[in-house]
Amino acid sequence: MSEVIEKGKLAKKASYQIGICTTKEKNDALAKIAEGLRKNEKAILAANQLDIQSGKEKGLSPSILDRVELTEERITDIADAILQVIDLTDPIGEVMETIEKDNGLEIDNTRVPIGVVGMIYEARPNVTVDAAALAVKTGNAIILRGSSSAIHSNLAIVKIIHEALANSAVVPDAVQLIEDTSRETASELFRLNDYLDVLIPRGGKTLIDTVVRESRVPVIETGAGNCHVYIDDSAKPDMAKAITLNAKLQRPSVCNAIESLLIQSDWFDQYGEEVISALIEKGVTVYGDTPVVDKVPLVQEAANTDWGTEYLDLKISVKIVEDVYEAIDHINTYGTKHSEAIITETADHASIFKQKVDATTVYHNASTRFTDGFEFGFGAEIGISTQKLHARGPMGLKALTSNKFIVSGDGQIRE
Amino acid sequence: MSEVIEKGKLAKKASYQIGICTTKEKNDALAKIAEGLRKNEKAILAANQLDIQSGKEKGLSPSILDRVELTEERITDIADAILQVIDLTDPIGEVMETIEKDNGLEIDNTRVPIGVVGMIYEARPNVTVDAAALAVKTGNAIILRGSSSAIHSNLAIVKIIHEALANSAVVPDAVQLIEDTSRETASELFRLNDYLDVLIPRGGKTLIDTVVRESRVPVIETGAGNCHVYIDDSAKPDMAKAITLNAKLQRPSVCNAIESLLIQSDWFDQYGEEVISALIEKGVTVYGDTPVVDKVPLVQEAANTDWGTEYLDLKISVKIVEDVYEAIDHINTYGTKHSEAIITETADHASIFKQKVDATTVYHNASTRFTDGFEFGFGAEIGISTQKLHARGPMGLKALTSNKFIVSGDGQIRE
């Protein structure tokens, strides 16, 4: 039996055990995991050094090595994050709706764990802990499939998790790590419908696209954010400038940073140059359509492909539009339906924009950078779903739950 | 451009129009569709006769021909069903949750249409109307891909729907019928991620399995029901017998009918023969394990494959188990996680069964036949989801919705 199928079976069986653990039992297990990570900090750092050495030998880029690398401080942060998960409300067992039928049947729609969650991810070993902790909290078993670049760290971490769970009411088999990081094990996960209820990719666009394309197991697509700020004719200049700079610059490498700026033409004539020059001063390369190039120095001519590009870098495309309707059309054509903002003092325009723009999150007079599970107050974030099914937008603990109808009767039969 | 891509694009564009129609506009469109179907009854029946003739020439089975066939009465029923949809509450626009942040941001999690729904289905032309009506009610565009056996009926019906929508506020492009019913158009739908948000298969196991296996578009899996009744040691004999007969016989061809009966051994010694003989008297072929064969005449020896078989017919497998735990293990091993019932007077056993059995719907002292959107009071049923994501169990209008976070600020940026 292959490693993936074997661990799939173990995870499925464990899911029935962890699925009915009490909140106290799950929180106790989480506390033991946090304690284990702190106590075994040296073992984790030693294993992590093997990954770093091996990565250097393979010539991995500094930015990937930075994602792989753990430090004492990072391990402390990871353990602290588990303590925060302990404090969150356990969603499992909630009766979301009760339906009482005339025939006396009582139907309780109750919140239950999904069962077995698969997580396929790249370099960062903190995802191993983070995903395991969220799974334990929500009574799910989890199958972790990280990348070869962090395998030593992941093995060390999961060993500690297993030791912690062995001293808790949660069965250690609830957390499974696929040790073989070859392509074949990813492909096997894509077909593991018998044991896996959902597969969540966390990483770059190539990984996510592959999972969406190949997986037969239901996927929650997280990811790409070609986000826009649209500055309407009535926008307050200072607010528009502050939001644009924040949305582009506060952390350019993340999915809720903007990649494109749309400006209403009259507003552009008055204030456009100031905003765009401020971006350029901060080191942003600006790709503009013709009126922008004509008016503002140092702007490069945008190619058609720029409107659909997620730079994740100090670059931005800028387009002049006639009105809010053109802005909406442009966003619905080129956006990735992630986070979109309008800056306006015209209530009607804000209302139309909120209604017509197709995205997980639509903002009026605020930065797109707030699309985040912690900023939304969920206390945790599994990822940001960009699909319409199951969960859309920032996903908290509830995204790892399903429902079960529990029906109580006294002999009812259907006529 | 292929028919599927062309209609995908039209549907996507139309989804932005129908998505913001008011409840009144959508209900008015539905009323016009119902009126159109009634007025054009003769045209529909004439087209349907072409399908029936063609089906007879191709040698389709009487049961398939019955599913294809329309009558005046069936058309009336179909039109009446639309009027019922009009009466349902429109789920779109509901603010499900409001989050107020310390920084003044107000975050409304609002219910929105999914966008473009794909429905891939078999013979029955009533699904064409049913699916279109539920899509219109929920502000979704829909792409219908029926089977060749009902293509003339489907073309006639969609022509009428388009005429009705042309006289309404809903754009006719919101309802698209794929006219080419070759395998290629199904395959194209599986890859239509740019224009299709979800694909729902309705039909037999082969169709559903194909869609789950092949589709890159997110799927809602509906379907297979290998359902059980477990009779516990304390079960009231009359209740156990009545529920078993009802769950098996009231409509054997549907997914929430039972395929397997589990009986606690002591109860079996006292009352088993009576229940099983009653099934046999009603024409049911019984496949039992050895103790059942030994004790009850006319029972055939069950093969191992029987425990996992969905007969959808007057057949049942019967197994003797020692206790509720063995029953739960058997159900979680062989069941399809659809609908499962325990008959018991022991509260603890009922509680364990409800908690541990992994299924969309778990019953205590009631027939599994109640797993149904109408019986649950949803007023409509898209299908019964057997997956854990998005929707599980009977799906009403809400299963055709997603969410959007609408955030209002006054210049907030992220620190």
Automatic annotation (TrEMBL), chains A, B:
Q: Which InterPro entries match?
A: Ald_DH/histidinol_DH (IPR016161), Ald_DH_C (IPR016163), Ald_DH_N (IPR016162), Aldehyde_DH_dom (IPR015590), G-glutamylP_reductase_CS (IPR020593), Glu-5-SA_DH (IPR012134), GPR_dom (IPR000965)
**Gene3D superfamilies hit by this protein:** Aldehyde Dehydrogenase, Chain A, domain 1, Aldehyde Dehydrogenase, Chain A, domain 2
Q: What is its EC number?
A: 1.2.1.41
The UniProt entry's sequence similarity note says: Belongs to the gamma-glutamyl phosphate reductase family.
Query: What is this protein's function per UniProt?
Result: Catalyzes the NADPH-dependent reduction of L-glutamate 5-phosphate into L-glutamate 5-semialdehyde and phosphate. The product spontaneously undergoes cyclization to form 1-pyrroline-5-carboxylate.
Taxonomic superkingdom: Bacteria
A GO MF term = glutamate-5-semialdehyde dehydrogenase activity
- PANTHER family documented for this protein: DELTA-1-PYRROLINE-5-CARBOXYLATE SYNTHASE, GLUTAMATE SEMIALDEHYDE DEHYDROGENASE
The protein's UniProt keywords, in alphabetical order, are: Amino-acid biosynthesis, Cytoplasm, NADP, Oxidoreductase, Proline biosynthesis
One protein family per Pfam: Aldedh
Q: In which pathway does it act?
A: Amino-acid biosynthesis; L-proline biosynthesis; L-glutamate 5-semialdehyde from L-glutamate: step 2/2
Name by which UniProt lists this protein: Gamma-glutamyl phosphate reductase
The protein's matches in SUPFAM superfamilies, at most eight in alphabetical order, are given as: ALDH-like
Task: Quote the gene name from the UniProt entry.
Answer: proA
Compartment(s): Cytoplasm
**First-level EC class:** oxidoreductase
| Ranges where the Aldehyde dehydrogenase domain occurs | 9-279
Q: Which reaction does it catalyse?
A: L-glutamate 5-semialdehyde + phosphate + NADP(+) = L-glutamyl 5-phosphate + NADPH + H(+)
